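Handout, page 2. Input:
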Amino acid sequence: MLESDPDFETPEPGIDITVTINDIDWDQVKEKTVANVKALIDAKLAELKAKIDELYNKVDWKGLEMYAYINSAVMADEWGFDMFRTSDGGETFEVITRDGFGDKYNYGCPAFLETEEGLYFGTCNPFYGGQLYLLKNNESDPEPQGFTLSGSVTSYLQNEYPDAVVTVTLTGNDNNFTAAVTGTDSYSIADVPAGSYELSVEKEKHVTRTYDVTVSADTTQDVKICPIGDATNDGKVNMFDYNAVYKHISKNPELAEDSYQRACADATGDGKVNMFDYNAIYKHANKTNLLF
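Output:
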């Protein structure tokens, strides 16, 4: 037996509230639905068009056109400044530089100083400061007056590889300067032009390490490289290192992405740190299969 709903109100006599699905005019419903959706879309499109027109009118189109023109002209131009000299009052000219003395960020040369050594040039460089060049008497190419980059070198395995030396290579990021020196406990690179560089340090059975260096004066950058498998970077390969690898694999904690510790932990050299590295370091620590 069904119980009556106390909230149901009895319709007045004579009102038929019975509606069946057959009584609905589905064509009319479809027509009204389509009309309502179309009206809603039209309203939203009109609103969107108004916002686009508003943004369009705020754009400085003439300024944008000028920017595009200047940008294309700059990109098509050679970087660096041009400099010429004449010995006949301007009838003929000799090129001194067409590229800012080989540095594309040297955009001007406002300072000159004549000395007994020759003519000094001071350049404008907004990225890492002005530079000083010397054009010696009777020479056509100026010599850059650079700085010295030096520092201490820390490496390991001297007993295992007594003849191994550390190679330090300096490569310019924004100029063509490159230099490489070897040593054991220190290095020094002279005549380095101002700029940003990558300093790479390598040695046999060690993991190569790079440093980002900016030179604008005499600069000291100490360097340190560690043996393969030395995940803790203490110069030894032992239980602490394979424990560090195990924790990394267990994500508790992980060795930082792109860190030097993570690079050293990759004992197999496959670009990953996993159980193969754990096993390699474990075997080395237990002297069953040495890494070096």
